[in-house]
Specification:
Number of helices: 6
Protein name: Vitamin B12 transporter BtuB
Helix content: under 10%
Oligomer: single chain
Subcellular location: Cell outer membrane
Domain TonB-dependent receptor-like beta-barrel: 193-590
Distance between the termini: 34 Å
Family: Belongs to the TonB-dependent receptor family.
Signal peptide: 1-23
Largest sheet: 23 strands, antiparallel
Mean pLDDT: 90
Length: 617
């Protein structure tokens, strides 16, 4: 029934395009946006002067694409492959530039949010609620962020309240008995500002074990997310904030016995995941040329699993961090950022009766040189002192040159990085290896960007080459984690954006990536050679906003086999019916492609969702 409900809402949106009353309530003027500051770079350098390879997903992008979860919008980005093992709530991992899923550092408002037990973040429960933008830095970023930033950094930034307090109630429903309700509120008064959101998501889902392979039962999902950001400005340029997020998610999954290679589709396999983070960043200018920022924060993750196949488990992961950052502006050409980070981590697996604690101190220094916004040079270094592993020294050097007259920009860089093994890779029975060593990497890249037709067209191409030493990977015969020696990942990232008309634009992105085990010459698991996306977007009088996109992934190795390539077509639209009411709709996998992202696991067929957003004071 919900499928027909979604189709009805889509038709309603299409018909609403001819409603003249809405045009009287909607202003034709465009909102003037503030300049983007990329927090993941720890500096105030303008985006066009960045020497790193980066992408910024803005609030405008988030609103027009209508994705429910962060992992869906990441799948469209350069250098990223996302793998989900089933319906909503299933394990969801991100692979950047051919590195392991544990090799991408994920932060929310500067808080590192990985699970210390598995060493990575599952994006299964990260909704789009209260997000202002998503920053992506590709390539090793260990000089600023330490361990795990080998493939790159993803930093999710929460919305900051501004202006008169406003509130929004939104609803979306559709396929697989999926419903989501969200309430947001934000605003500011004198020196204080706030933003808050609460959402509830429920879905009957589909079988995690692919139905075409014999899966029969639906694996349901529920998610409650609470997000807040409170800020207070003091002494002209001082600011203190409280930023927090709490997620409680529950999902069912299908068990798998690796000894018999069979799935358990009817037994009660389920996971209850509670995760929370909190940060209290404070910043103040000490002089006209020296800014200080202190960010104490914590992240807690609890995973309660009912698994008749391997037994129940309760896993707790905690991370405590204090980061002290100094930005010094020496003169109009030279600035520097330096500081230190102290981090304590621990993970406990009560069912397997093991735990591990670790502490790390990192000291970093990075200097930027800017000559007339043409020549840009960035040099940095970092020393990490760890209680379990040998000290790690990492460094990077990047440079860029802008030919302002021709709209051309060339850049290049070299960087090193490392990833520390996770607790499971060290201690988990029949998998862990106490002698496992950290991964190390050396990477270089070169790129060129060209603007054409009065900046209406932008073409950017980047080549990267990454040499990974002591790559950590399970032995396919014994499942025990081991350092496989050397692996190499190289690729070409290409991006074209074209504003065809003032209200019509197209974006095309393609990544070619070859990530191989140098011992055997075989491709690394879950690293496809090709990923690509094309999006055509149209905005009619700031009332009707619509897009259609294609997302492609080539065949790749998955587990003990391969999964075929796939091309998914989706569409999304919204219509501002009145000043307060906006109608929304989206359709996923419109060609009803049958495919697998991970061997044996199910994926959604054609599906539709529709809803509304109601704003009020």
């Amino acid at each position: 029934m919900k499928k027909y409900f979604s189709i009805f809402m889509v038709c309603l949106l299409s018909g609403a395009a001819s409603t003249p009353a809405a045009a009287q309530d909607k202003k034709d003027t465009l909102e003037i946006l503030e300049p983007i500051e990329i927090h993941a770079t720890r500096s105030r350098i303008k985006p066009e002067n960045q020497t790193a390879s980066y992408s910024v997903i803005t609030r405008e992008d988030i609103e027009k694409k209508k994705h429910m979860q962060v992992k869906d919008i990441l799948q469209e980005q350069l250098g990223i492959n996302v793998v989900q093992t089933g319906p909503l709530g299933s394990s969801t991992t991100v692979f950047m530039r051919g590195t392991n899923s544990q090799s991408t550092l994920v932060m929310i408002d500067g808080v590192q949010v990985k699970s210390n037990s598995v060493g990575s973040l599952s994006f299964a429960n990260i909704q789009m609620d209260n997000i202002e933008r998503i920053e992506i830095l590709r390539g090793p970023q260990s000089t600023l962020w330490g361990a795990d930033a080998v493939g790159g950094v993803i930093n999710i930034v929460t919305r900051k309240g501004t202006g008169k307090p406003t509130h929004t109630l939104s609803f979306e429903g559709g396929s697989f008995e999926t419903f989501k309700e969200t309430l947001t509120s934000s605003g500011s008064h004198e020196n204080m500002d706030y933003s808050f959101s609460v959402s509830n998501t429920d879905s009957e889902g589909f079988s995690a074990f692919n139905e075409r392979r014999g899966g029969t039962e639906n694996d349901g999902y529920s998610n409650q997310t609470y997000s807040s950001r409170l800020g207070y400005n003091f002494l002209n340029d001082g600011r203190v904030e409280f930023i927090g997020r709490y997620i409680r998610a529950r999902n069912h999954f299908d068990g798998f016995d690796p000894l018999t290679s069979t799935f358990s589709d009817t037994l009660p396999h389920r996971i209850v995941n509670e995760t929370a983070y909190a940060a209290l960043p404070m910043q103040k200018s000490l002089t006209e040329w020296w800014d200080l920022k202190i960010n104490p924060n914590l992240h807690i993750d609890e995973l309660d699993t009912t698994d008749p196949t391997f037994g129940d488990s309760f896993i707790i992961s905690r991370t405590y961090t204090v980061d002290v950052q100094n930005n010094v502006y020496i003169n109009e050409h030279v600035s520097t950022v330096f500081g230190f980070e102290h981090q304590a981590t621990n993970a406990t697996n009560n069912s397997q009766n093991f735990s591990l604690q670790n502490e790390n101190q990192g000291y970093y220094l990075q200097t930027q040189f800017n000559w007339d916004d043409r020549f840009l040079l960035n040099i940095g270094a970092r020393e990490d002192i760890n209680t379990r592993f040998a000290n790690k020294f990492t460094y990077k050097i990047e440079a860029a040159y802008r030919f302002v007259e021709t709209g051309t920009r060339v850049r290049g860089g070299f960087a090193t990085g490392f990833r520390a093994p996770s607790v499971n890779e060290i201690l988990f029975p029949f998998f862990g290896n106490p002698n496992i060593q950290p991964e190390e990497t050396e990477s270089f890249e070169v790129g060129v960007e060209q603007k054409l037709l009065s900046d209406r067209i932008t073409v950017a191409v980047t080549y990267f080459n990454m040499d990974l030493k002591n790559q950590i990977q399970p032995n396919p015969a014994t499942f025990i984690a081991e350092n496989i020696g050397r692996a190499r990942s190289q690729g070409i990232e290409s991006l074209v954006t074209w504003r065809i008309l003032d209200d019509l634009d197209v974006r095309a992105a393609h990544t070619w990536n070859q990530a191989v085990d140098e011992r055997t010459g075989t491709l690394l698991v879950r690293r496809p050679r090709h990923t690509a996306s094309v999006t055509l977007h149209h905005n009619w009088r700031n009332l009707l906003d619509s897009l259609i996109s294609v997302n492609y992934r080539s065949a790749m190795v998955s587990g003990t086999g391969r999964v075929g390539g796939r091309a998914l077509v989706r569409a999304a639209m919204s219509y501002q019916l009145t000043k307060q009411l906006k109608l929304t709709a989206r359709g996923e996998n419109l060609l009803n492609k049958k495919y697998e992202e991970s061997l044996f696991f199910g994926t959604a067929g054609i599906s539709g969702y529709a809803g509304f957003e109601y704003a009020f004071d």
